[in-house]
Amino acid sequence: MMILMRFFYDYECPYCQRGYGYLREFIGDHPEIDLEWRPIEAHPRPENHPPHTDLCVQSYYIARELGADMEAFHRKMFQAAALERRNVEKVEVLAEILGDIVDPGKFRSILESNKYALQVTENNDLAYEQSGVWAVPAFRILRKGAPEKRLDSPEGMGLNRDQIREFLEHAGT
User: Fold this and answer.
1) Bridge partners of residue 60, in order along the sequence
2) Are 153 and 136 in contact (CB under 8 A)?
3) Which residue, 89, 79, 60, 71, is CA-closest to 23?
4) Closest listed residue to residue 107, CA positions, set 122, 120, 117, 96
């Protein structure tokens, strides 16, 4: 039986970057888990806590549409936003960051069209209003006929390797 796991994260969050690394380390051992990526904004507008990552969320969907190597995409976005603190609120900066994995012209055109702007709102609503996420990274296991399982990051602390490994190991129980 397939198990759906939602991963809520923000590219500017160093705890999410670390959680992403642990997730990638262990997810291959769990082919029964269907991973659903849900990039969100830890601090959505109008909150005065830059950088705002709404364009990063949209970039995720654009990269998928353009057939990008999504592992490379995640690495580049976390590197730029969480580690280098690049200005990911600017279209031209994102186009430069991703220029070797997507066509920069196509990327910029789609991003400027706001094609995926609604996805930002939908992901934030799914996380905060429907799934009870208070801090990222956060994981949700959804199985038909079973209660939802949660792994939430303590605010300002993140999750460690063992917490994520154990959560994946017990996803089906």
Assistant:
1) none
2) yes
3) 71
4) 96
